[in-house]
Fold these 2 entries.
Entry 1:
Amino acid sequence: MVEMKPGEMSASSSPLAGKKLWIPNMSRGTARVVAGVFKALGIEAAPLPDGDARTRELALKHLTGDECYPQVVTLGNFLKVTEMEGFDPAKNALFMAASNGPCRFGQYSLIFRQVLDSQGFGEVEILSPSCENGYRGLGKEGPEVFRYFWWALIAADLLRRMLHRYRPYEKVPGTTDRVWDISIEEAAMTLGEPTRRGPKKFADLALTLGRARERFRAIKKDLSVEKPLIGVAGEIFCRLNDFSNDSMIRQIEAKGGEAWLADLSEWIFYVNFWEMEELRAFGQRFTKRMLTAKITDRVQRREEHSLVRIFKSDLAGREEPESVGSVVKAGGKYIPPHAALGEMILSIGKAEWYHKKGCAGMVDISPFSCMNATVAEAIYPKVSEALGGMPIRTFYYDGTHADMEEKVDLFMALARGFNGLS
Ligand code: SF4
C-alpha cells in the first residue's frame, strides 16, 4: 500500500469519501481513465455498466420517450446500478458533467434527481463540478483534478484514434482491441497513482502513451490495403458510445472502411472558444475572466500538442485542425455561428476539414430528434455540393436497434465511388 505524504491527495479531504462514484460511459475508454483520476484522490470510481436491453427498459419507466437518447442510456445504466445487490444510496454517487449549454443537456441532471428521489434514492449524490460552482464536491483539490481530467480525455482520445487507425488493417482479428484495452488500463493506472502529481504525473502519462504506441505498432497489419477514410461527426454522446450507435465504427470497418471519429476534446476546445467569443460580445475583452479563459485554452492546447506528438507519424494524414475556430469558421459559411451553437456548427464545419484531408465521406451519428442533428441534416446537401459531392449522411439512433446494414452499404458504395475506389 502506498503511504500518503502530507499534502498529497487524500480521500478524507473529499466530500465523496466513502462513496463509490459512477462515471457515465459516453466513451468506455474515457470513463475508465477518468475513474483513474478519481482513484488518485482516494475515491472509488468506476464506469457505469455498458448499455443493454435492460438500460432502455428501466429508463423508460420514468421518462416519456421524448427525451434525448443519451439521457435514456445514462439514466438506464445508473438504474441498473441501483439494482445491484446491496446497493446503498448513501454510498453511491453519479458524476454528471455540468453544462448550461444551448440544448437539452442542461436538464439531464435535474431529471435524474427527480427520478432518483421518486425511487427512494434521494441520498444518491449527483456530482456536477465546474469552475463556476467552485468544483463542488471535489474539495480543495478540484482545480488540480480538473487538470488531470483534461489529460485523461486527451489520452483516451489518442488511444481511440490509434484503435480506429489500425484495427481495419489488423491481420489477426481482435488484436487491436486487446492492445487498446491494455493501454487504457495502463493510462488509468498512471493517472490514478496518488504519489505522482503535477508535471511528474504528466511525464508518466507521456511515457505510458509511448509504450502504448509501441504496442500498437507491433500489431501485425497490412497498411498497404487501400480503404476509404470516413469522417465521423455528430452528437457527442451518441457518436462516442458504441451501444447507442450500434457500433457504427465497426460497421464501417466491416464494410471495408476506416473511420476517423471526432474527438471528445474537440468539444472542450469549442467550449473554451465559445466562452471567449461571448466575453468579447459582452464587452469583457479586457477582464480577468477573459485572461483566465485564454490561459486555460493555451495551456490545454499545449498539453494536447505534447501528447499528440507521440503519435504523430501513426496518425499522419488524420491530424485535427490547429484550432476549433477554423471549424466554426467553415461551418459559418452555411449557418450563423452565433445562432447555431453546439455540435451542429462543429459537424457542418468538420465536413470541410474531412474533405480537405482526403476523406471519402462523412457520417453524422446522432440521437433521433436531436435538435443539433436535425438542423445539420437540413444543411448537409449544400455542404456536400460545395465539397464536390462528398457523401454526407446522418444516421439517427433511438435504441430500437433498427437494421442499418443496407444504409451503411449504400453509403460506403457512394464513398468508394467518390474516392475512385472499386
Ligand atoms: S445535442 Fe441533441 S441529444 Fe444532446 S442534449 Fe442536445 S438535443 Fe439532446
Note: The first strand starts at residue 20 and ends at 23.
Entry 2:
Amino acid sequence: MKKYQLNTKTGTSDILICESFEKLQEHTAGKKIVILTDEQIFALQGERFPDVSIIRIPQGEQAKSLGRTTLLYQELVRLGVDRSDMLVAVGGGVICDLGGFVATTFQRGIGLSFVPTTLLAQVDAAIGGKNGVNLGKYKNMVGTFRQPSFVLIDPSFLKTLPENEFISGLAEVVKYGLISDPGILALIEGKTPREISGDHDLLTELIERSVRAKVAVVTQDEEDRGLRRILNFGHTYGHGIERLYELPHGKAVAYGMVVAVDISIQLGLAEDMLRKRIFTLLKNLELLPDIKPDQEKVMELISHDKKKKGKEIPFVLLKDAGKTVIRPLSPDKIMDLLKNIKLFTI
Ligand SMILES: NC(=O)c1ccc[n+]([C@@H]2O[C@H](COP(=O)([O-])OP(=O)(O)OC[C@H]3O[C@@H](n4cnc5c(N)ncnc54)[C@H](O)[C@@H]3O)[C@@H](O)[C@H]2O)c1
C-alpha cells in the first residue's frame, strides 16, 4: 500500500493506493460507519462488505439528485447517525459525488470517506473534494468542497467492472498523461484495454501516477479558480458531443482531447506530430467514436454552457504532452478552427 496526502483549506485527505477493502475499518478511527453503495456493486461485491449498516440505492446518474439526497438524510436520521459517525461511499463517481454531498450537508457535516470502485472514480472523481448533485439537466449544479478523511483505492474492485466502463476511465488516465505526466502515455502506447486491465502492475502504476497528477493540481487550486481548470482538458468540446450524440463520457472526452490537440496545432502552439500520437493512442484504446459532429450544433451547446462567463470560452490547449496553456477564444474563432480540423485524415 502507498499513501499520498492531499492538504487543502478544507482538510487533509489520505489517499491509500492498493489498500484492501477488507482493511477498511483500520482507517475509520473507531467511528461508527454507514456505507452508501449502489445495487449493482452490492450484487457483485456485497460479500466483501463489513457487517455495518449499508444503504443501497439504484445505480445510475439519476441518483445524483436533490430528491435522492432527501431520502438519504431521512435514512441517516432513521439509523441514528450523528456528527461523530462516518459515511463511507463505496462506488463510482455517482456514489462518491452524492455521498460526499450528503455527508457534508447532513447535520452540517459528518465524517466522510470514499472507496472508489470504477477506474474513473479511482483516478479522478474520488480525488479532490468536489461533491455534488445535478439540478434537473444541469450537472453538478449544487455541491460542496470538502476532502474525505481518506480515499481507499482497491484495484481488485475493477475485476467486475464492465469493459465499457473501464475503457471510459482510461480516457481520464490519458488526460493526466497529456496535461501533466507524459510518462503515462509511454506506458500505454501500443496497448489495448484488455492488456491494461489484465496487467496488475501496470494498472496500479497508472492509477498512482494519475492520482499524483490530480493531487498536485488540487493542492494548488482546490476551488477551481485557476490551475484546476486544466483538468477540463478535452471536456469543453467533449461535454458538447456527449449531450448531442449521447456518447459515453470517456469517448466524448477522448474526441474532445483530439479536437483540443488539433486546435493547439492550428494555433501554432504544438507540433504536428502530437496529433498522430494522440490519435493512434486513443484508437488503440477503443476510445474514438465514429461520428462526424455537426460543429454548428456543438458550438451552440458549448457557448450556451459557458454563457455566463462572457463571450470568450477558456479552452485548455497543449504546447506539448505535459504542457498546458489556457486560451480564451471567441465562439467565431472556435468555429473557424473547428472547420479546419483534420480529425480523421491521418
Ligand atoms: N467530483 C469529481 O471531481 C468528479 C470528477 C469526474 C467525474 N465525476 C462524476 O462521476 C460520475 C461518473 O462516475 P462513473 O463513471 O464512476 O459512473 P458510475 O458511478 O455511474 O458507475 C458506472 C457503473 O458502473 C457500476 N459499477 C461501479 N463499480 C463497479 C464495480 N466495481 N463492478 C461492477 N460494476 C460497477 C455502477 O453500478 C454503474 O452502473 C459523473 O456523475 C461525474 O459527474 C466527478
Note: The longest strand covers residues 138-145.
